[in-house]
Structures are given as structure tokens and as C-alpha cells.
């Protein structure tokens, strides 16, 4: 029997998105929007391009997600003072106020996923997935002429 790691990761991703969409719906947020907010909590006042790169999203997807967050008043976007071609994204007070709720929902999901594993197993799962991601990113970099 051939086992498909990609299929399992895809299933987990879809279940994660569904959980977050349901858990954050009362707060008028989606899973895609929370990913952007989580990045901004660590790197506020950052370019739209940097967010897209980190989240591995194309420009159109990040533009739509940011426009939704702007409309909901969770973030603002303005032209970079040094490079007018770039947009700088910042969290608003309303966006900052939802941070603890988002963190709690993410912690609840992680706890659910890992509750049957001891700490050593949990670390192994995390380390293994991180190694896989790094391998794929290295391969993509080499394929695109970067090392």
C-alpha cells in the first residue's frame, strides 16, 4: 500500500481551516485573516509583500485578505514613505483587541491535535514537520536558482 503524506497534510489543513472558520466566525474573522493577523502581531508595520512571502500566498490572495481586514477595521494599509510602490500594513486597536481570542483558539486546536501524545512525541512531530518544510523550501530555492 502506498501511503500519501501529502493527502494527510491536506486533510489536516482543511480541518484546521474549517475549525478556525467556525471558531472565529463570531468575531467576524476567517482562517485566512487570522494567519495575516498572527504574522502582524509579531511584525507590525510590515510590507504587504513580506506578508505574502511569509504566508506563501500570491499577491491577489493577500490583497483580497488585507482588503477584508481593512473593511473590518482590523488593519490599515498605507504607502511606504521610502518606497511608494510598497504598502505598509499595521494592526489597529480593534485588531490588537482580538489577539488573545485568536491565540486561545489556536491553542485549543493544537491541544486537541496533540492531546494523545506525550511531550517527546509532540516535539518529534513538530521537528519532523519542520524538517519537511525546510527540505521543500530548500529544494524550491535550488530549483529557482537560489541556494
From TrEMBL:
Coiled-coil spans in chain: none
SMART domains membership: HTH_MARR (SM00347)
Keywords from the UniProt entry: DNA-binding, Transcription, Transcription regulation
Entry-linked Gene3D superfamilies: Winged helix-like DNA-binding domain superfamily/Winged helix DNA-binding domain (1.10.10.10)
InterPro entries: HTH_MarR-typ (IPR000835), Tscrpt_reg_MarR-type_CS (IPR023187), WH-like_DNA-bd_sf (IPR036388), WH_DNA-bd_sf (IPR036390)
Domain of life from the UniProt record: Bacteria
Record-annotated HTH marR-type domain positions: 1-138
Protein name: HTH marR-type domain-containing protein
Organism: Candidatus Enterococcus ferrettii
